[in-house]
């Protein structure tokens, strides 16, 4: 069985309308854009662009974000190195409850009469808490990962000030991520 095509938004999907509403309210309460005061911006345009940036990041394939984190994880690297010197030997590594963090810096350029009048950069942090995953490693490469449960936390900040944060309910991910070709670690 293979994990159905999923992106980060899959973890948030049941709560998407609530999240969008929360994000908009947070931006209205804490307008982070003092630099834009006085500019003739239509109401809600900036908030809409920020929400679109968050959605774009959440549309990344879940597999890509998780693999990027696992490739850096010492436990995976140790087993990959051990199997590299023992061709054909397979290590099944329980990935005990662990967290992966993915940091992003979405940027919005504000144009007025086709000229950039401001650039607004945000920090978006995605924190995954994963439980029950098991990695299969052979010949120094990640062959597959049996999935478990995942919980995603998202934090949006502007100039180191948290604007919005949300922790999603845990989601059981069915199946297995299979890598063909296997991913060198």
Short description:
This protein is an alpha+beta fold and 185 residues long. It has helices at 8-12, 16-29, 45-58, 62-72, 74-84, and strands at 90-95, 98-104, 107-112, 115-121, 123-131, 133-138, 141-146, 149-158, 161-167, 171-172, 176-184.
Structure overview:
With 185 residues, this protein is an alpha+beta fold. The chain has helices at 8-12, 16-29, 45-58, 62-72, 74-84, and strands spanning 90-95, 98-104, 107-112, 115-121, 123-131, 133-138, 141-146, 149-158, 161-167, 171-172, 176-184. The mean pLDDT is 78.
What attributes characterize this protein structure?
185 residues; alpha+beta; four-stranded antiparallel beta sheet; 5 helices
Summarize the topology.
Layout lengths: L7 H5 L3 H14 L15 H14 L3 H11 L1 H11 L5 E6 L2 E7 L2 E6 L2 E7 L1 E9 L1 E6 L2 E6 L2 E10 L2 E7 L3 E2 L3 E9 L1
Antiparallel strand pairs: 1-6, 2-5, 3-4, 5-8, 6-7, 7-11, 8-9, 8-10
How many DSSP H or I helices? Answer: 5
List the uncertain runs. Answer: none
Tell me the strand percentage band. Answer: 35-45%
Which percent range fits the helix content?
25-40%
Main beta-sheet annotation: 5 strands, antiparallel
Q: What's the SSE pattern?
A: HHHHHEEEEEEEEEEE
- What is the gyration radius calculated from CA atoms? 20 Å
Mean of pLDDT: 78
Note the gap between the termini. Answer: 23 Å
Structural class: alpha+beta
Rough outline: elongated
Instruction: Please count the beta strands (DSSP E, at least 2 residues each).
Output: 11
How many domains make up the 3D coordinates?
A: 1
């Amino acid at each position: 069985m293979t994990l159905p095509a999923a992106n980060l938004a899959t973890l948030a999907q049941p709560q998407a309308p609530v999240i969008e509403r929360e994000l908009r309210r947070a931006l209205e309460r804490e307008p982070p854009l003092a630099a834009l005061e006085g500019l003739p911006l239509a109401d809600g345009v900036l908030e809409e662009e920020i929400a679109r940036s968050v959605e774009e990041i959440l549309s990344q394939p879940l597999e890509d974000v998780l693999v990027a984190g696992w490739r850096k994880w010492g436990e995976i690297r140790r087993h990959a190195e051990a199997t590299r010197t023992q061709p054909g030997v397979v290590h099944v590594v329980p990935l005990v409850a662990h967290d992966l963090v993915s940091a992003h810096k979405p940027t919005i350029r504000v144009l007025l009469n086709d000229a950039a009048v401001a650039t607004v950069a945000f920090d978006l942090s995605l924190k995954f808490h994963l439980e029950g995953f098991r990695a299969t490693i052979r010949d120094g490469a990640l062959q597959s990962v049996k999935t478990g449960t995942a919980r995603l936390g998202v934090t949006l900040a502007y100039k180191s000030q948290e604007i919005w944060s949300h922790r999603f309910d845990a989601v059981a991910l069915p199946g297995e991520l299979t890598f063909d070709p296997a991913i060198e670690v």
